[in-house]
Structures are given as structure tokens and as C-alpha cells.
Amino acid sequence: MTKLIRIIILLAITLNTTNSSGLNRETNLLEIAEAAPFTIEIVGQGKPILYLPGFATPGSIWKETVESLNLERKSYLFSYAGFNGNEPIEMPWYSNIKNGIIDYIKDNKMSDIIIVGHSMGGNLAVDIATELPNKVSKIIIVEALPCMREE
Predict the structure, then answer these.
(1) Co-location of 22 and 61 in the same domain
(2) Which key words tag this protein in UniProt (predicted)?
(3) How many Cβ atoms sit within 10 Å of the Cβ of residue 70?
């Protein structure tokens, strides 16, 4: 009888742990769906210059460049979802980030934009400039990576 009680208790604990884990997993998926595609650190004043890092690289990688160039522009240092302490987002990851940046540009009524992109950020720069040719005045690409698109 004691063995049967122990087995029932063990079974109840196992089922409770499984249900709890499943609930946490579902909650995490809801959080991912609501996460922002990027965070931005803004430095300076003036016309916009967007700095897009490579895959898995924080936007802060551009700080030394911004300080060295000392341009009279407002610098936007982007860090992508899933990296640099930012919550992950749903797939298609690249498209969600690209569209998020395009929406950010439109929502903030930016124009005469310079976009500097490294690696995957270079791909984003080209794609954004293609979709917003009247808003982007220049792009500067540092070693663009040709294989990040999911489309």
C-alpha cells in the first residue's frame, strides 16, 4: 500500500511539472510575439544617420565610430531582437526587423537619411533604401553578407 501511495504521489508531481512547464512555454511564446524587433540608442542632434550592425552584434559597436566621425547628425544605434539582452521575436526574423525599421522611419517622419550597415546591416540598408528611395539619401555598406534573407 505504501508503494502505491508513493507511485501516485510521484505520478502527480510528474504531471504537475509537465503542465507547469507547458504553461511556461506558452507564456514565453506570447511574450515573443509582443517583443520589439529592435532597440535604439540615440546620440546627438541633427539629420538622421542609422547604424545597423551585423547579425548578433549590439548597436553599441558603432559608438567609437560615431565619436570619431563627430558628424552633426542624430545617430541611431540599432540592436536587434534576440541579442544584446533584447527579447526574441517571431520568424521571419529578418523581414520583421526590416519592416520594423521602415515603420520607425515613417512614424518618425525621417528624411535625408544616411544608413550605415555592416554585414547583415548592409543588406538591411540596401533593402530599406530600395523601399524608401525618397527618404534615404545615402547608404554606406561595410562587408554586406548576401545570404541572410528568408524570402
Answers:
(1) no
(2) Hydrolase
(3) 8
151 within a domain of the structure (yes/no): no
pTM of the model: 0.73
Grid cell listed for 124? 538591411
Q: Tell me how crowded residue 40 is: count the other CB atoms within 10 A of its CB.
A: 15
Q: What does the alpha-carbon distance between residue 97 and residue 89 come to, in Å, rounded to a whole number?
A: 9
Q: How many domains does the chain have?
A: 2
Nearest to 57 by CA among 151, 148, 150: 148
| Residue in the structure block whose three cell numbers are 546627438 | 44
Q: Per-residue pLDDT averaged across 68-76, rounded? A: 91
Query: Binning pLDDT at 50, 70 and 90, where does residue 25 land?
Result: very low
Could you list the residue range(s) of the whole structural domain that residue 60 is in?
38-142
